[in-house]
Write a structure and sequence with these properties.
The structure is a homodimer of 81-residue chains.
Chain A (H helix, E strand, L loop, with lengths): L1 E8 L6 H12 L5 E14 L4 H16 L5 E8 L2
Antiparallel strand pairs in A: 1-2, 1-3
Main location (chains A, B): cytoplasm
EC number (chains A, B): 6.3.5.3
Pfam family, one (chains A, B): PurS
Chain lengths: 81, 81
């Protein structure tokens, strides 16, 4: 199975990368850009055939190693092989 | 509208972050981890109501500012307000 994690800065947390990308886009002529958030996209391939187990594992991985809960929000998705 | 970009290292491109995360997960007991890819997740909020236009803009943004085509693969998705 493949676990896809989508991580972004929590609301209210400074996101200097997002600000830089927004300014860059506007300077390139994309004037309708309102806001940009820059986060992480992580794919974890696991030897696991049970989807329920993969979901539990994904939550544990997020908590222990993937997500900094204080400054980041995340979602994940399980893709079966 | 919201444009969500999912960016990851192209196949064959070195991904030291991915390797580090994989090793860390295994050392934490997630022994069934086969491979990890670390990429970027970028949200771009635009003042645009026409979905077709947003799609065209997303492709232009990717090409000009968001994605390094030589080493990165990407997908995007448009979310309507």
């Amino acid at each position: 199975m493949l676990i896809k994690f989508y991580i972004k800065p929590r609301k209210g947390v400074l996101d200097p990368q997002g600000r830089a990308v927004a300014e860059n886009l506007r300077s390139l002529g994309f004037e309708n850009v309102k806001d940009v958030k820059v986060g992480k996209y992580i794919e974890v391939y696991v030897n696991e055939t049970n989807k329920e187990k993969a979901i539990e594992e994904a939550k544990e991985m997020a908590k222990k190693a993937i997500v900094n809960d204080i400054i980041e929000d995340y979602e994940f998705e399980i893709v079966e092989d």
